[in-house]
Amino acid sequence: MYTPYPENMMESIKKVEASRQARMATEPRRLTADEKDNLLKEFHPDYKPEAFAEIKVGPNKGEKAPLELANMLHSTSRICGENIDLTKVDYDVDVLVIGGGGAGSSCAIEAHEAGANVMIVTKLRIGDANTMMAEGGIQAADKENDSPVQHYLDCFGGGHFAAKPELVKKLVMEAPDAIKWLNELGVEFDKEEDGTMITTHGGGTSRKRMHAAKDYSGAEIMRTLRDEVINRGIPVVEFTSAVELIKDDKGQVAGAVLLNMETGDYMVARAKTVVIATGGAGRMHYQGFPTSNHYGATADGLVLGYRAGAKLLYQDSIQYHPTGAIYPSQILGALVTEKVRSVGAQLVNGEGEAYIHPLETRDVNASGVIRECAEGRGVDVPGGAKGVWLDTPMIEILGGEGTIEKRIPAMFRMYMNYGIDMRKVPILIYPTLHYQNGGLEIGGDGFTKNIENLLVAGEAVGGIHGRNRLMGNSLLDIIVFGRNAGKAAAKKSQEVTLGELTLSHIEDYAKELKAAGVETNEVSPLLLPKYARHER
Amino acid sequence: MENMVNVFFYGKKYSVPADLTIMTAMEYAGYTLKRGCGCRHGFCGACATIYRIKGDNELKTCLACQTQVQEGMYVASIPFFPTDKRTYNINEIKPTNQIMMELYPEIYSCIGCNACTNACTQGLNVMQYIAYAQRADFEKCAEESFDCVGCGCCSTRCPAGISHPMVGLLARRLTGKYIAPETEHLKNRVEEINRGEYDELIEQIMQKPITEMQELYNTREIEK
Fold this sequence. Notes:
The structure holds two protein chains of two kinds.
Chain A: H1 7-25, H2 33-43, E1 52-54, E2 64-66, H3 67-73, E3 76-77, E4 91-98, H4 102-113, E5 118-121, H5 130-133, E6 138-139, H6 148-158, H7 165-173, H8 175-185, E7 199-200, E8 210-211, H9 217-231, E9 236-237, E10 240-248, E11 253-260, E12 266-276, H10 300-307, E13 312-313, E14 318-325, H11 339-342, E15 347-348, H12 362-374, E16 379-380, E17 386-390, H13 393-399, H14 403-407, H15 409-416, E18 427-436, E19 439-441, E20 454-456, E21 461-462, H16 473-493, E22 501-502, H17 504-515, E23 523-524
Parallel strand pairs in A: 3-23, 4-5, 4-12, 5-9, 12-20, 19-21
Antiparallel strand pairs in A: 1-2, 6-8, 7-8, 10-11, 10-22, 11-12, 13-19, 14-18, 15-17, 16-17, 17-18
Helix pairs in contact in A: 2-12, 4-9, 4-16, 6-7
Chain B: E1 4-9, E2 12-17, H1 22-28, E3 48-53, E4 60-63, E5 73-77, H2 99-103, H3 115-119, H4 126-134, H5 138-145, H6 153-156, H7 164-179, H8 184-194, H9 199-207, H10 210-218
Parallel strand pairs in B: 1-5
Antiparallel strand pairs in B: 1-2, 3-4, 3-5
Helix pairs in contact in B: 4-5, 4-7, 5-7
């Protein structure tokens, strides 16, 4: 007998196997709007008031943010007390892109295409980003039975009607062109022999519009964009983080203070337009959750944008992906792509019950998992955690033998590393911190609304997805808004005349903190999570 | 008491919990990683690592984030490796028989030692995809190399100095752009949008009051 799990889990699997045939005969019903609302209010982590703090200074003063983010907003600038000579300019460009992920790279490619002198700075390597880790796919309404309007409805409703209409419009209307652009750069999408895109559902989609490249969708996109950036000769300054924005005496953004991550030296980049494309915040571990995010996902862009006066939107709305790995411990928090459910696996509790439709929106499915575990229908994991099953053997039964290796090879590989063959046994999951729904507020043109020459693209933006993002809309938004930001930043840079550089806004912010009586004894942005154990 | 094992980071001995990965064990030992750490979930190739188990002469390669520590493991990370990417304009090159010879001629110096395949952290048949590239069989090269995360372990072991991940990447871009069948429905939809066919509809839905949007959303038909 094949027993890759501890005894209690194998016992539970017997129940999962016993109910499988009956479960496969009927699709679990969809929840009503009221049922969803109640489930969210009772179990979604965003509804835990003790996990949030009031922001004490700045444009969002009085609003809530996760404790860890509020702490960073209330911390001291890294350059306080440093003597930064702004007259010595190390890099002088038209467009400075902060961040080398999917949004930053798309942005740089389009800015370069528009003829601008563009440069990327990134605190790790280009491509070290959440984009690289996106597995399931990218949405676009490009099939006959679908339309951008239907995509709009799914996105807007799935985000609880909180998204900014002008941003959703751009997202859905420019989606097909984003796919076409990627395809023409050489991204290999899954296609039928006649060229038809192989598309599936994601949670909350009403049409099958999820385009994929196996379950390496983000990696395939990211490595192609990275290759294109390098082919074009766009300068990429790696292991260098932006730690503060620089303004000029007219109050417009004029560049950034850079920190060499390896030597600790500061440098000055002057730029006519600056694009914040710094990505997410999973490594802040809000509410102690493990994360599916990249090592560098520490909300840096939000902090330096906020200090410069840019406004945040929905900074209190976080996405927990319903299916993160909870066992074995070596892959704790790793993303188990939603595509596993798109191709047929159900969510099944410890009693063998398919307690919810597997393709509700992420916030609803995450709340469902938390409920099952809280109410005693989860499966115990060594160390005290709990999880529920994702019934992966169903995929092979539904799609035929070999479907798992063909459609979700990365998942298969990740589990086989630890001797778990998901073709034969289900896998155990629990929500993982996955995405920041909120971020810096922008208008349809990609610029922040109140700081001149400052743009934001990708996960650092708030408002595109409202209060919950659908699967496949993030890979889409980094391309759509990345490209737009590149074009807009390049165009604007031709009109900008910079004055004298200044960091006075950093001093002003410090004074505000002092006046508000806020003192954290920490510096921000975080740049890297503190994982090194120093106690003996 | 936790189950501990002895591992050696750059030759220095540390006692670490046995259930950690090489990456988390280094952090347990007190390292703050800057290089050699990326997505931490096996997708980015930042944490290419070489190790040898004490008493065993075989050198092994792995991703530090995807590999559990073992007793007697001598570990060195490979924070950077000078793989040699050639630059090109994707719109100007074509999937011709000569393109690999022009951009990556060293692949024809492969001596067939299979060290690349043995070093692959993803379990890919690297030598085979290089063979496909030699024959200008780009589709097969693309398929065989598709799961590559670009960690570069293959290249560190190659006596011919081949930059395998870059060869696979070129084959995939050529395949995606030129060889894979064109998507008619995508082309049509982009044209419809550019002709303004959805402009009015999208403006209409943007103007609808929230209550009407809720009704539309909650009653929308979901494709089976």
